[in-house]
Amino acid sequence: MIHFVLLISRQGKVRLTKWYSPYSQKERTKVIRELSGVILTRGPKLCNFVEWKGYKVVYKRYASLYFCMCIDQEDNELEVLEIIHHYVEILDRYFGSVCELDLIFNFHKAYYILDELLIAGELQEPSKKTVARLISAQ
Amino acid sequence: MAGGVFSSYYSSSSSIMETLFQRTLEDLIKGLRLQLIGESAFVSKAIEEIRREVKSTDPHTKSTALQKLSYLASLHFHDMSWAAFHVVEVMSSSRFFHKRIGYHAASLSFHDDTPVLLLITNQLRKDLASTNEFEVSLALECLSRISTPDLARDLTPEIFTLLSTTKILVRKKAISVVLRVFAKYPDAVRVCFKRLVENLDSSDPQILAAVVGVFCELASQDPGSYLPLAPEFYRILIDSKNNWVLIKVLKIFAKLAPLEPRLAKRVVEPICDHMRRTGAKSLMFECIRTVVSSFSEYESAVKLAVVKIRELLVDDDPNLKYLGLQALSVIAPKHLWAVLENKEVVIKWLSDEDPNIKLESLRLVMTMVSESNVVEISRVLVNFSLKSGPGFCNEILGSILFTCSRNVYEMIIDFDWYVSLLGEMSRIPHCQKGVEIENQLIDIGMRVKDVRPELLRVARDLLIDPALLGNPFLHRILAAAAWVSGEYVEFSRNPFELIEALLQPRTNLLPLSVRAVYIHSAFKVLIFCLHSYILQSESITSSFSDNLVLGVSELVLKRNMLEGSDLTTCEAPSAHRSEGFNPRNQSYEDLSIENGGDRTINDGQTSTRAFSEKNIFTYESIINLINQVELALGPLTGSHDAELLERTRHILCFIELIKGEITECLVQKGKTLESEEMKASKIIKLMSDAFSEELGPVSVSAQQRVPIPEGLVLKENLDDLETICADIQVPPSNLFSLGSPYYGEEVGVSPFGLQNKEESEPSNEATFLLTEHRKLHGLYYLASEKNEIVGNDYPPANEPKLQDNPKNDTEDLVKLTVQSLATNKKPNHAKTRPVVVKLDEGDLVTITAKRPETKDDLVSGAVREVLLGSDTRTATSQSNPSDKSSSKRKGKEKLNVDRSELKENLGDSETPKQENPSSRKNKHRTIGKERRHNSPGKIGKEREENGQKGKQKSSHRHARHKARHRADAPLNVVSQTPVIPDFLL
């Protein structure tokens, strides 16, 4: 399952956090600090997976934003990359060529869309159209 | 800013104004981006505002305030637990817009201990039952995030209802949430599992994806319970076109297949099909991973997987490269050929730019290491580490050290090579593995007798190089080298060189603890030199007068006993005039040179067993040596470090003790005053005996083997004693750490009156020095340095080690257990290989076995409960729910319905008759052409089995009974599982 989702800007600013496993506030800041240290320093042509404390963190950079998801050892990294891409596509469809500012000013909508995509750390909605439609409907 | 001023101005007077001038979320974000007063100041101001606004009675103001707060909480990590009650208020708002803000805040900030959680049960229940599906999904989302046992219990009925709702959006969410509910409230399994299983038959892809996801998670915890559902999963594996669903199903099969070989046999082909056909890398990789992890005995499948892995390895995409390497390392233990086949690629990626890929390929390279190629691979890697950056260099060194030392160096045949490799590794500029190399140098020294000469050579080379002293990472290695040089000095060709290296001025760069080791080693070397010198002169004397030879030792003993008291008195002053002694010494030197010259000549002429090395111990050189030591250590008598000071004192006092005699006796040599010489030589001999005692490795578990005396309470809290015991020093704790039996006897000897004791009780002196040495160098007497730490940090009387740092202990134990296991497995690898001393670790196994067990119990207790529950459910579900599912299908497949219905009915009504099963089996075979219809058949069959057992009363009860059986005795699983595969095959 997915343990948490992080969106971090290239400068290390946090744009979205979603925790599917229980982490205290202290742990959350620690996780973010550690991970952004690891991920932001990685070069562009390296693989998108980082081993981290017995978990794996799959990240991908879109424009100036790093999308990171933390998964279990036995989870499929490529699938998670696809999920990230899926999320980005939905955001893109919803905002119309999404950019970081969209997410900054509509952070709650980014959350609502994520909630349609993942629940309890599991993927729940494979269709982009439906998600976009649902969010607009609300 | 202006808005803020206004709002604060008006807020007290009017809530309308407050609403009008409230800053929206957007204002807040903008303000935060443009603020000039510093982020934290701005945020705390904003929080102040929010605190006021959130109390407002206007729902809009309130919810906006909450929204702002959750923004700050989620992205700026401000505590919002204080607003928990407001969150609940907003959650209960009637407007969806507000409600959503409330729910979002709740799922963000609530946790299991949030006190207001009790208040939301009813709200959640209401929303779960709402007709607005968006409200339902809000509540579900919230529940997935913060379900407590109470919440899960109270809301189970609602979830149960939602599991079969016609609204797809809601149903799929409910399915996912079930997982959390099960985890918190295992009894929910009894209620909901049936419906969950029904959803496996759903034609809706979203539902299917969700339910497969749930089963994937469930099966990863306890696959055995889900074996009965294998046919359903198999159907999905064949039919589904959705890659994400297929990946999950593959994961389930990866868990199920090892439990049931026949299932694996059936499934392996479709998996290979997927692997061949799919264009999606994610699915292909999942197929590979499934095969290499769970189907490794199917040769053809593995071959196919290796071909695909190869494709990944040579791909340009670093992700695929990385995953390919990972897949290889999964398969390496069972099919090493797969790794060997791709050897060049793997080694090629060792120099990839991505550290993760490098690391993976390093791991793979290490799996290829064997007795035959360890030398070459290590060579390649060491060369490689020279070229790589500090981080990866140390990864390489670490893995070489780890691999080579595994199972008490089982891979190493040529220890001379390995020891010199260790020396070489120490010199690699980036090397930071000092501690590990230190341990191995000492460990090998103690375990492998034959390697000691080479070890000494390596140590000498390290010590002699003054450049190494400046590198703090090497200090531990140098400490080991110093210890080796002292301990195995007898293999040295030139001990003077060692002393010189040990006392070189640059040693002041070393940390005090290492320096103490240096000084003590110098002491040992000095003793060795003196002893050799005496042996030599004895042999000369013997050549002068043969009849004296045997008498010497006896004479010495006698005289010493007689003159013991005299000597003490005459030695005492010599200690005091330590400074004044030197000039006198100089004056003797001229004489000594002559004597030395004589001696060498004599040696060459007369002694039969004189080897060239012996010749270096001339009188002159000895005096030089002594002077050199004195000179080097003189300044240290002012050291503030107790350890350093004490050791320096030992060695200086010793020199004082013998110097006078040595010089005097030599001056008078040729005359008859042999007794004087003998005194000094006796002391030296005793010292030398003390130091030449062989040290062996000591089991980490030595402590545990000491039987606990009756009436000794180890677990009691003795904190109070700490103040009292603080002064008492190490000995008791070291008692257990030593291999020597002498030590125990001699602990009682008081470490005072060095000179007096020495004369009157020579044997005590020697053993005292031995104990002293061991005390100071406890580090090297033990298998690990832990004990010394323990000895220093804790008052020794307290619980000795059993309870100290349990983590390290267990780790070590685990390691050692592995060792001992391996030893059992492979007892005779001492062919050409030198003997490696191993410890009898028999009892370790039991100790380690105990510890993890208790841990296991703690961790999995809860989990097991859940799974037992679900197990029961699985069994029942097979009988009941599929009845339903089959009837559901009625509408769709008219042709078969009647039959399957009939069959079901049969299944229900038929119970006690024994003939029925077989007849029905036949019928079933003919009917069940389509896979889909097999599932009810399976159930029927299972019931048949029950029938055959002739135990059933009501099917439900029966199933439960069975499940309990299964839980009690794992054997039953085997007896029951055939049900599924039989059907599948």
Automatic annotation (TrEMBL), chain A:
Entry's Gene Ontology BP terms: cytosolic transport; intracellular protein transport
Subunit (UniProt): Adaptor protein complex 1 (AP-1) is a heterotetramer composed of two large adaptins (gamma-type subunit and beta-type subunit), a medium adaptin (mu-type subunit) and a small adaptin (sigma-type subunit).
Family affiliation: Belongs to the adaptor complexes small subunit family.
Span of domain AP complex mu/sigma subunit: 1-135
Topology of this chain in the membrane: Peripheral membrane protein
An example Gene Ontology CC term for this record: AP-1 adaptor complex
Residues in coiled coil: none
Domain of life (superkingdom): Eukaryota
Source species of the chain: Juglans regia (English walnut)
Molecular function per GO: clathrin adaptor activity
Name listed for the protein in its UniProt record: AP complex subunit sigma
Keywords: Cytoplasmic vesicle, Golgi apparatus, Membrane, Protein transport, Transport
Function: Subunit of clathrin-associated adaptor protein complex 1 that plays a role in protein sorting at the trans-Golgi network and early endosomes (TGN/EE). The AP complexes mediate the recruitment of clathrin to membranes and the recognition of sorting signals within the cytosolic tails of transmembrane cargo molecules.
Pfam families: Clat_adaptor_s
Cellular localisation: Cytoplasmic vesicle, Clathrin-coated vesicle membrane; Golgi apparatus
TrEMBL record, chain B:
Chief location category: membrane
Biological process (GO), any one: vesicle-mediated transport
Name used for this protein in its record: AP-3 complex subunit delta
InterPro entries on file: AP3_complex_dsu (IPR017105), ARM-like (IPR011989), ARM-type_fold (IPR016024), Clathrin/coatomer_adapt-like_N (IPR002553)
Residues passing through the membrane, by range: none
Similarity-based family: Belongs to the adaptor complexes large subunit family.
Biased composition (Basic and acidic residues): 893-913, 939-948
Assembly information from the UniProt record: Adaptor protein complex 3 (AP-3) is a heterotetramer.
Chain positions covered by the region annotation Disordered: 869-985
Compositional bias (Basic residues): 920-935, 950-965
